[in-house]
Amino acid sequence: MAKLRGLVLVGLLGAVLFTASPAMAAPVRPVAVTMSVSSAALVPAQTQPPGPVLDPAQTDKANSEKTRNKLVAGLIAVVLLGIVIWGRKIRSKRAKGS
């Protein structure tokens, strides 16, 4: 049990030390771009909007499917937890009876 506790503490300490916090991260600075007049004339103008067009119906459908999947996973987790607790209760009663 002591070895397990030590391993858990070492794992948590490692996770804390090797996880970069946002406060310590260096800010990314954009690189200045310089173009001469002759090369700027060769670049075509942007004609498409910058980004995808999202359909609200598809977004709502995807959100509802995701919510349903989360509810099913949560229900399965609760059932499995109940089985574990019930099994431990039965095992402890058998141990007391022996």
What does this structure look like?
- The chain has about 100 residues and is an all-alpha fold.
- It has a domain of about 40 residues.
- It has 3 helices and no strands.
- The longest helix has about 40 residues.
- The model has no long low-confidence stretch (mean pLDDT about 80).
Question: What does the main sheet amount to?
Answer: none
Number of strands: 0
Give the ordered list of helices and strands.
Answer: HHH
Shape by Cα distribution: flat
Provide the structure class: mainly alpha
Number of helices: 3
State which percent range the strand residues make up: under 5%
How much helicity do the residues have? Answer: 55-70%
Q: How far is the N terminus from the C terminus?
A: 25 Å
Q: Unreliable runs, pLDDT <50, ≥5 residues?
A: none
Rg measurement, Å: 28 Å
Mean pLDDT: 79
Signal peptide: 1-25
Organism: Amycolatopsis tolypomycina
Keywords: Membrane, Signal, Transmembrane, Transmembrane helix
Transmembrane segments: 71-87
